[in-house]
């Protein structure tokens, strides 16, 4: 069955030699649509394959979930105060001021994540092997690895645990295999581990994969999964998100991180308070002993001198000197405290300890230095958790601490000197009054000295006791520097891969692959595929288009033939009337670029269709080098044109009946001559054509390919029209340049192109098969989707 059509009429050219289609330029949407529809099954198959690949990718890829949390940090600059801060502000002790940016860095710190990794044993991961990938497990396992010791230099170790029964298991890796009981302690190359059996979960798997990393590597890996950021600069909140393949694991890790951060901030505050309380307790002991000694002296003085009440005797004097005594007492208290702190700072045993900051609140410079000194001490202790004292960073901190310690000592010395000057000044004023009371009995004066010492010691004791109580209260009210707004919670759907995006991408790739293939096929194809390849490559008009024939017979244009291809030859016969417009124009020359383009097929069937119309036709087999027509028709080729040209055969014996139609005659090529071109130039050849014009209505010359030899050009002098055969998917595009040169230089008469072997429904045009069911006995193409699909698959 043939599914063919044809174009009745020639493609017209304008005066510049270019086709109307070429002039229009651009992409023809209809042709593009037809090309896509002709290859619809490729798009369907590739789209199904794209969706299938997307499904397989989603099926076997590891989904990643995002776990988020939000905390509020105390930041005086942004108003982020935590509950309970008012108590500390009223006590004016242990300032907990912070900055959100600093807290972000703390949350990102390695030391904080290291604590989480160690507490949760995150450096050990558990997997269950599958057919394609292994799946990580968390907590819900029938056993747990408890590492009692792990080498720091470990990179990665992978073990396979095979449970044997409820009592034993086998642990293997490269060059290592150990059989042990549950809850046993094993000595492995990476360290010492105890494998405990968790009987809440059954031993359901045959094998478990255990991946062991060093703590440092595990910390680095988990830090990459953590993201800490501030939403905007107007708030003091911090957003935390953690990427994980197991939502439950991510939630617990993030909650543990936040909990460790909050505990660390409280611990830092409590350490400062504990250091202050310890210092106050030591001073209280000394002051209490001194106060007791003074009180004993007063008691002994009264007992020895039998003095009951000297108040009334010294009332007037005390009233006059009370102001000086009070001032002197205050300065002496400050002097004692400063002296105690100075001794504390000079003691090398206290170089690594936190300096109490709540005793001297009157001097802001000293308080600021103490705060900075204590902050550095805490940072040094935090760094020593994961470093040694030889670390360059620790040495830098030590140098800073030494400088601050010197500044504190200088500040205390200066402060002490100032207080000493004040005391001396008050003492001088007091001496003036002392001179005035020398008349007072010695007993009264001695008693007054004892009372003054008692007052100083008592004020100092009460001061220290008050500060100790305030410190104890502040410790009980210490809270974390931040509060949790939203606890860690995983998103319901994985954020990667996005299922909808993967499926859309699969569809897009499924569409893009065949589209790209079609584009590259057209771009890289060097052979003629469609009409545009011809019209853009040559100004020569297309006279007719001959469809593809699956018949093995050479002749497809018999008298009763009603096939589509026979109708195409009839259309060619009709179009030839426009080419051979003159009465004496009878000779039609057929040539092509190379062998195999169908010259013999077209010439034979053209002669046949002309003979059927009642015209007397002679077909000349003038491809003297490679004749085919006589062989295909079963006609002897012992004599022919080559023997006629040299005078061995007469004109009457040269012309032979074709055996196809009574009006169809043939002149065979004869034996292959050594000099075909010279035979065509002989005078005998021209005489032959003169005779043929007298006896035949049409003379069809099947010549050699003009792209290989010059035979066709030599015959052009006797021809009235030339048909240049072009075969779809066979003729090279570059060979069309030859027709352009022949047309422009007019080397051949009335040059036209006949396109041969046009595939049904192919890429040449709109396909053949319509318009031939009316009066010709040809069945119309079946309609319907299934029929079209079946027809398309059969044709392809």
TrEMBL record:
InterPro entries recorded: AAA_dom, Bact_polysacc_biosynth/exp, GNVR, LPS_length_determ_N, P-loop_NTPase, Wzc-like_C
Compositional bias per record (Polar residues), positions renumbered to this chain: 13-22
Keyword Plastid recorded: no
Gene3D superfamilies: P-loop containing nucleotide triphosphate hydrolases
Domain annotation AAA: ranges: 586-715
Pfam families in the cross-refs: AAA_31, GNVR, Wzz
E.C. designation(s): 2.7.10.2
Residue ranges occupied by any Tyrosine-protein kinase G-rich domain in the UniProt entry: 448-521
Protein name (Swiss-Prot/TrEMBL): non-specific protein-tyrosine kinase
């Amino acid at each position: 069955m043939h599914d063919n059509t044809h174009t009745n009429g020639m493609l017209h050219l304008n005066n510049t030699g270019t086709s109307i289609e070429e002039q229009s330029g651009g992409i023809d949407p209809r042709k593009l649509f037809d090309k896509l529809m002709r290859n619809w099954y490729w798009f369907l198959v590739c789209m199904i394959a794209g969706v299938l690949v997307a499904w397989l990718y989603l099926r076997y890829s590891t989904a990643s979930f995002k776990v988020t949390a939000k905390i509020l940090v105390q930041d005086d600059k942004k108003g982020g105060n935590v509950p309970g801060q008012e108590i500390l502000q009223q006590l004016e002790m242990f300032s907990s001021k912070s900055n959100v940016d600093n807290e972000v860095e703390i949350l990102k710190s390695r030391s904080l994540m290291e604590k989480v990794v160690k507490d949760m044993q995150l450096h050990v991961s558990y997997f269950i092997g599958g057919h394609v990938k292994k799946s990580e497990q968390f907590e819900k396992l029938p056993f747990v690895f408890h590492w009692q010791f792990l080498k720091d230099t470990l990179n990665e170790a992978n073990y396979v645990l095979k449970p044997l029964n409820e009592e034993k298991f086998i642990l293997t890796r490269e060059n290592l295999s150990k059989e042990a009981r549950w809850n046993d302690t094993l000595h492995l190359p990476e360290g010492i581990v105890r494998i405990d059996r968790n009987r809440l979960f059954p031993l359901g798997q045959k094998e478990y994969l255990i991946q062991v990393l060093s703590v440092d590597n595990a910390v680095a890996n988990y830090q990459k999964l953590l993201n800490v950021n501030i939403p905007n600069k107007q708030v003091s909140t911090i957003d935390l998100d953690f990427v994980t393949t197991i939502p439950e694991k991510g939630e617990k890790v993030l909650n543990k991180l936040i909990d460790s951060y909050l505990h660390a901030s409280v611990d830092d505050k409590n350490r400062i308070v504990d250091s202050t309380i310890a210092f106050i307790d030591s001073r209280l002991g000394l002051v209490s002993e001194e106060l007791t000694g003074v009180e004993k002296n007063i008691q002994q003085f009264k007992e020895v001198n039998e003095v009951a009440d000297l108040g009334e005797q010294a009332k007037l004097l005390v009233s006059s000197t009370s102001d000086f005594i009070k001032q002197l007492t205050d300065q002496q208290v400050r002097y004692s405290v400063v002296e105690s702190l100075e001794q504390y700072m000079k003691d090398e045993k206290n170089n690594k300890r936190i300096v109490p900051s709540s005793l001297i609140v009157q001097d802001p410079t000293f308080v600021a230095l103490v705060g900075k000194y204590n902050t550095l001490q805490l940072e040094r202790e935090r760094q020593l958790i994961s470093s040694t004292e030889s670390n360059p960073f620790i040495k830098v901190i030590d140098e800073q601490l030494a400088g601050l310690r010197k500044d504190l000592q200088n500040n205390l010395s200066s402060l002490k000197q100032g207080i000493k000057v004040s005391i001396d000044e008050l003492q001088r004023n007091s001496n003036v009054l002392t001179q005035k009371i020398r008349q007072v009995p010695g007993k009264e004066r001695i008693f007054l000295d004892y009372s003054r010492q008692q007052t100083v010691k008592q004020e100092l004791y009460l001061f220290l006791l008050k500060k100790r109580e305030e410190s104890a209260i502040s410790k009980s009210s210490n809270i974390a520097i931040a509060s949790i707004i939203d606890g860690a919670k995983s998103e319901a759907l994985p954020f990667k891969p996005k299922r909808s995006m993967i499926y859309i991408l699969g569809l897009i790739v499924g569409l893009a692959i065949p589209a790209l293939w079609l584009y590259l096929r057209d771009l890289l194809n060097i052979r003629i595929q469609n009409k545009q390849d011809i019209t853009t490559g040559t100004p020569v008009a297309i006279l007719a288009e001959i469809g593809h024939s699956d018949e093995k017979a050479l002749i497809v244009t018999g008298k009763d033939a009603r096939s589509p291809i026979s109708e195409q030859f009839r259309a060619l016969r009709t179009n030839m009337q426009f080419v051979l417009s003159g009465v004496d124009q009878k000779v039609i020359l057929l040539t092509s670029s190379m062998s195999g383009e169908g010259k013999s097929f077209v010439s034979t069937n053209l002669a046949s269709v002309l003979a059927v119309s009642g015209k007397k036709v002679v077909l000349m087999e003038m491809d003297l080098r490679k004749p085919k027509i006589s062989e295909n028709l079963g006609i002897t080729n012992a004599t022919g044109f080559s023997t006629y040209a040299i005078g061995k055969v007469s004109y009457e014996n040269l012309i032979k009946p074709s055996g196809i139609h009574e009006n169809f005659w043939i002149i065979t090529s004869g034996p292959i001559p050594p000099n075909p071109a010279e035979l065509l130039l002989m005078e005998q050849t021209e005489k032959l054509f003169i005779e043929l014009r007298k006896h035949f209505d049409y003379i069809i010359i099947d010549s050699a390919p003009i792209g290989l030899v010059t035979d066709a050009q030599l015959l052009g002098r006797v021809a009235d029209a030339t048909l240049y055969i072009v075969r779809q998917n066979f003729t090279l595009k570059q060979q069309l340049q030859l027709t352009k040169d022949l047309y422009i230089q007019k080397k051949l008469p009335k040059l036209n192109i006949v396109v041969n072997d046009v595939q049904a429904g192919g890429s040449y045009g709109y396909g053949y098969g319509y318009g031939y069911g009316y009066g010709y006995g040809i069945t119309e193409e079946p309609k319907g989707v299934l029929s079209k699909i079946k027809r398309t698959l059969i044709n392809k």
